[in-house]
Write a structure and sequence with these properties.
By secondary structure, this protein is mainly β. The protein has one helix at residues 34-43, and strands at 47-54, 65-67, 73-83, 88-96, 105-110, 113-120. The protein has one helix and six strands; from the N terminus they run H-E-E-E-E-E-E.
Length: 127
């Protein structure tokens, strides 16, 4: 479904805005660090959590590098697997915000090979 896995996709240092969880962040009351999160919501974040599916054979794993079409490092995989329900290899990871648009082609570095992938909209499985 694309739920964030604590310890992989999010942790104590993750901005809810960067993780795409702004919808669960309420600003009706003050809380520790609310000024930082409000600023991120207004100005954007340096990186964003994206979902992707591989276009070629391979299985993405945590900490694999994500590259742009020119081979530049733009992020890192946080979780990934082969998903039998969609019959594709899928994953999530953080990339620089300017590379986070739906449909963007990215490459996952698997065993020193760049495997093509596409940024998709969650959820992975649609009934």
């Amino acid at each position: 479904m694309g739920y964030c896995l604590y310890g992989n996709d999010i942790n104590d240092n993750t901005s809810p805005i960067s993780a795409g969880l702004g919808w669960v962040t309420k600003f009706t009351k003050e809380f520790v660090g609310d000024n930082i999160i409000k600023k991120a919501k207004l100005e954007g974040t340096e990186s964003k959590l994206i979902a992707f599916e591989l276009l070629d054979r391979g299985i993405p794993r945590k900490d694999y590098e994500i590259e742009d079409v020119d081979g530049n490092l733009i992020g890192q995989v946080t979780s990934g697997t082969m998903a039998p329900s969609v019959k594709k290899a899928i994953g999530m990871g953080y990339v620089k915000s300017e590379h986070s648009n739906l449909g963007n082609k990215i490459f996952i570095k698997i065993r020193n090979k760049s495997i093509s992938a596409e940024i998709i909209k969650l959820p992975f499985y649609k009934s």
